[in-house]
Please model this.
Amino acid sequence: MNPVSAPADDRRWAAFTEVGPWEIRRSDARWLSLASTLRHRAQAEVPQLTAPSRLPPGLRVLTVSARLARAVVPWIIGKRRQRYAGPAESRAVISRRLRIAAEALGPTYIKLGQIISSGDGLFPAELVTEFKRCRDQVPAEPFDVVRLTVEQDLGARLEDVFESFEETALAAASIAQVHAARLRSGEDVVVKVQRPSVAAFVRDDLRVMAWLAPHLVGRIPVASLANPPALVELFAETIVEELDFRMEAANMLDVAAMLHDLGQDRYVVPRPHPELVTRRVLVMERVSGFNFDDAAGMQDAGINTEDVIRTAMIAFMEGAVVEGIFHGDLHGGNLFVMEDGRTALLDYGIVGRLTGGRRNAFLRLMLGATTNDIRGQMAALRDLGALPADTDLDAVIRDLRLDEQVIDPTTLTGEEMVHEVQRMVKALLGYGAKLPKELMLYVKNLVFLDGAIARLAPELDLIGEVANISMLFAAKHGERLGRELGVDPNAVEFDLDGVKASMGLDPSVDSLTYRELQERRALIQRRMQAHVESTR
Model:
């Protein structure tokens, strides 16, 4: 296969680079026909992996239990002897000890920690803060191990496939590591190589987590809030699809086609190789650019970082809402901003997919958010699986006081804010609330974009952007979405005052920059922290 030297025909159906190292046709991708079957098989395996057994599942449980005991028992003793100044210090101590234990237990637990670390607002604050310190770089496998894996999966000597292959990894993560290489046909590529035996270790660890999780319920504050059994199930649904790179390569094609169909020409997906993809090896086109966190570098190159953020928000929301597919693991390492301002999207091990009734429920959730339809949002959350099917929605609305006028949180005292958070968490847990996989991935990506705005576009007017995006969706997709939801798109009224109220703002407020939002958040955090300190 020779490198492509003219505009590639595969751009007629996918968001690829103009001149790629090869063209890819779905009919040429040997691995593509297996992907759907592999995906269904992986998800069907989750209930078996997460069903708690009566007896400890194998010897691995001894190692995990011992390491967790070393983390938790000293904390319990310290708590009983009143060594901690107050609840906040106690939660901080157990969170730190759990993070250290996760790092010692290896890739599966580090991966779990990294997912928790990007869940601001989804998991307890102390746990999120501590797991953000989880090391980003897992030690790379020795090159002879990498060579053996590649040769076994490709069925050929490394030298027969590659003209060069960098022995030092570009990056190493919990599941795999990536190496720069050049094919013998001349194309520069990146080779993603799975760690040997990681698939077996992950499955063993999931069984151990499932056995341990029920024993943690209500035992420690952070665990009771995070709902350990539900967290294990959510984690399993996410990680099982990362263990076969043929699914990831198929995800690349699906996302590339989705971006093309939506006319999102500011995003680029690297091409997977049509032949060199196996369960543990993925060869793909190499792309490069500015790290997504490098605001100064982009601005020095003349790239409008506000446009980068705006494109990210629209593309992410369009994919989920309109096409029912979206990248499920946005973070700085998975996004490169190219010199022309386009963004290259990397790493497709985790992809959110909404189909059938779940996609319809998600559409209704988004519609309810823009029209301030509280009951419609609650019904949609129920149908997504966030609430049990027999939930009394009116009771939930009353208990959470969602039918009352929204109060500006900056007008509350620290004690009032802490009490309100505790009340809502207790009520949700009482109703059996949980976070479905797709909703967790969507919210986690929103959290990432929130942080990206702080770095790349702090003066962005959030109210104006929400209004503009809503009008864009109505003009571009209103007819289709209205037909799918069975509503008249012309009768749907965007409730901007409701959006303002959800932020605790008065209807008279015309704009709110991200910097101003951060100042409001900082004030709220200071008041809550002051209250916690005063109760010690």
The chain has a mean pLDDT of 87.
